[in-house]
Amino acid sequence: MDFLEYPEVVKEEKGGLVPGRLKLTNQSVIFKNNKTGKVDQIQASEIESVRWQRLAAHPGLRILLKSGVLHRFGGFQDADNEKLGKFFQTNFEEEIKNKELCLKGWNWGTAKFVGNVLSFDVDKNTAFEVPLTNVSHCTNAKSEVTLEFHQNDEAAVSLMELRFHIPTDPNGTVDPVQAFVDNVLAKASIIQATGDAIVTFKELQCLTPRGRYDIKIFPSFIQLHGKTFDYKIPLDSILRLFLLPHKDNRQMFFVLSLDPPIKQGQTRYPFLILLFSKEDETTVELSLSEEDIKEKYDEKLQKEMSGPTFEVISRVMKAIVQRKITVPGSFKGHSGTHAVTCSYRAGNGLLYPLERGIIYVHKPPVHIRFEEIANINFARSGGSTRSFDIEIETKTGVVHTFSSIEKEEYGRLYDFTSGKKLRIKNRDIKTTKEKPVYNEELVDSDVEDEPDAYLQRVKAEGREREEGGGSTDEESSDESFAPEESGSEVAEEYDSNPPTSSDSDEDYEGSDSGDESDKPKPEKKPKEKKPKEAKKSRSAKTVKEPGMRKRKPKKEKDENKPKRPASAYFLYLADNREKIKKENPGISITEITKKAGEMWKEVTDKSKWEEQAAEGKKKYEKAMAEYKASGGGSKAKEEQRTPKKDKDRKSSTVKSPAKSPGSFKSKEYVSSSSDSSDDESKSPKKKKADSDSDDKMEIDDAASGSGNESGSD
Asked: Parallel, antiparallel, or unpaired: how do β-strands 325-326 and 238-245 relate?
């Protein structure tokens, strides 16, 4: 077998177990940290010995290097012992031996130093081991030696101090206590400024932690010296280097990603961010010999270096830290820069889409690798149509929201995330009991004008087809809510006695042409008049103002009318819909349309569907000519010229022979009178002239007849 891979393995680091992925090839052992993405690679030529031992109640691998560094991996099963043994024997020529541990509860034993490991043995078996790289300080007092350890914030429980009692030998020539201390200090990870710094940069502007610092670079660590605080950063804690141009094209960010982070009290700084002006230049001289430059740094440095400050310090850091510098990739915003202005939490900053992740600077800095991202959601920015938000959810469940991004950036960011094969989440899909309802603006809900031209075109063509084929659901839904209708709750607020549905059209369209002649007058009891009711009745006239919206005449669908032909794009969509579904299982209707639009944009030869569309258009025009020649559509046009309310008005003005002329009274007159005796003594109001001449004549006859009978005129 060429390699073995274990996706759920833990590595012991500073007393804590870090989850990651272990891969063994015929040349190296590679471990990748799931949290930070840091990769530790062990070459086959560096391995001194491999042992199979217990680690945190589970079998583990103990790999000791020739340099004395110890690596321990856990999370294996007992059945993996044989498989790993064959692999190491075949590819590394190393035999995996079982390392037995002492389980006695004795605290007397023998201390041994093997490489960078302090082993405490009882009965010739190891009781516990201490990697000396975890030791931060060592002190002694008489016969007692105290070891202090680096604090690991990620570990639930940390060992901070360990004390050894070492018996002294009065006849011995060597002090065993001092020898023990010397062995620990020789291999411990104690940051001490021994000798001169390789290079020193004065008064650099630092954004995180804030202030101006002198930066001294030593062979094993970096020292930040400020007016208030000093920081020491081991080189092995620097994970990544970033060189990012500011959006104003006049400044540069130089970012160092740290793990573990530097701390000041309870404040942690996982990033060191330096800000430089492109115009600032410097000249430095390195305190390195020509041999060191050639052997240690492969001639990547020069004895004397000059140029822009950000360029000099980035070159020095790259050579000494031995990490690649990450710069922005191919992404560019609508302004031509590599950054996008946005807000994160309470601060404003810049978001840089990189080739393998996204980084935000500067307060607080955030770096998210693509492999950490579970999904990305594009959402509205607090109801605003001028900007949108990006919600990035990691696989651990943490959601980062970058808000107030200009809507012009949407198309570029969407194309970028799609090109990186990141999952774009649709959070606005709502389901009902009847059928799922898909929000078409889910992906594009951040901007007022859709940036996707093809999706916009699909919507427009769909509307045209619906309008050509007959009435749509949208029109009927608009008609369902009409404040002018007497049956609605809005009308009841204006009239305490709303009219029935049969006369709602005439009453609420401003028609007072004596329509009450066909209905018996309501019987009213005397002394039931209330001033409030009269006010409400009079206020009902406000509903009839000419500015109010009138009810639209409902279109009647003609089944014989030819259907509009499909466009070339719709024909292409019909041919490829099933293909898109198979390639993208679980895709929504909106995403199918958008995917088809992107594919259609890339199609170079569209002649097939354009010819089909042209042929369909010819058939449609021929069918429409035959339809119109047979008289199709004339009835609908006639009904549009003669509104329903006019026909009802004409029919309602025909006088019934059973009724006397005095019975023609307007609704306003009837509702405002208190009893039948008062009606006889009062004159009705003069009716307004109607545009229809026939209606006007009938209204005048009715009014004159009413006046003669009452005798008041």
From this structure: parallel
Residue 21 pLDDT > 70 = yes
Residue ranges with strand state E in 180-280: 199-208, 211-217, 221-225, 230-234, 238-245, 251-264, 267-277
pLDDT tens digits, one per residue of 186-225: 888 776 655 678 899 999 999 999 999 999 998 888 989 8
Element (H, E) at 359: strand 357-361
DSSP string, 25-79: ESSEEEEEETTT--EEEEEGGGEEEEEEEEETTEEEEEEEETTS-EEEEE---TT
Smallest CA-to-CA distance from 94 within 44, 24, 35, 144 is with 44
Q: How far is CA 355 from CA 244, 339, 376, in A?
A: 13, 13, 16
CA–CA distance, 115 with 138 (Å, rounded to integer): 17
Enter the DSSP assignment of 551: P
Q: What is the pLDDT of residue 13?
A: 86
Nearest to 189 by CA among 139, 234, 141, 239: 234
Phi, psi of 575 (to 5 degrees): -75, -30
For residue 618, pLDDT over 50 is answered with yes
pLDDT for 453: 52
CB 150 within 8 A of CB 162: no
Q: 194: helix, coil or strand?
A: coil
Question: Quick one: average pLDDT of 532-538?
Answer: 45
Per the listing, tokens 């020789």 go with 186
Residue 157's region, left for phi above 0, alpha for psi from -120 to 50, else beta, is: beta
Distance (Å, rounded) from C-alpha 409 to C-alpha 345? Answer: 20
Distance from C-alpha of 224 to C-alpha of 238, rounded to nearest angstrom: 14
Looking at residue 554, its pLDDT comes to 65
Amino acid symbol at 577: R
Cα 57 to its chain centre, rounded Å, is 40
Residue 448: band (very low, low, confident or very high) from pLDDT cuts 50, 70, 90: very low
Q: 3-class DSSP state for residue 559?
A: coil
pLDDT at 390 over 70: yes
Distance between start and end Cα atoms, the chain: 116
Query: Mean pLDDT score of the chain, rounded to an integer?
Result: 75
Sign, CA torsion 304/307/310/311: negative
User: SS3 of 41, please?
Assistant: strand
pLDDT tens profile 688-709: 444 444 444 444 444 444 444 4
Q: What is the pLDDT of residue 373?
A: 92
What residues contact 259, with CB distance under 8 A and at least 6 apart? Answer: 36, 38, 237, 239, 270
What pLDDT, on the 0 to 100 scale, is given for residue 437? Answer: 37
Identify the CA nearest to 377 among candidates 331, 415, 423, 441: 423
| Cα dihedral 147, 148, 154, 158 in deg (nearest 10) | 60
Please tell me whether residue 270 adopts helix, strand or coil conformation: strand
Q: Residue 698's closest CA among 687, 682, 711?
A: 687
Q: What is the DSSP string of 568-601?
A: HHHHHHHHHHHHHHHHSTT--HHHHHHHHHHHHH
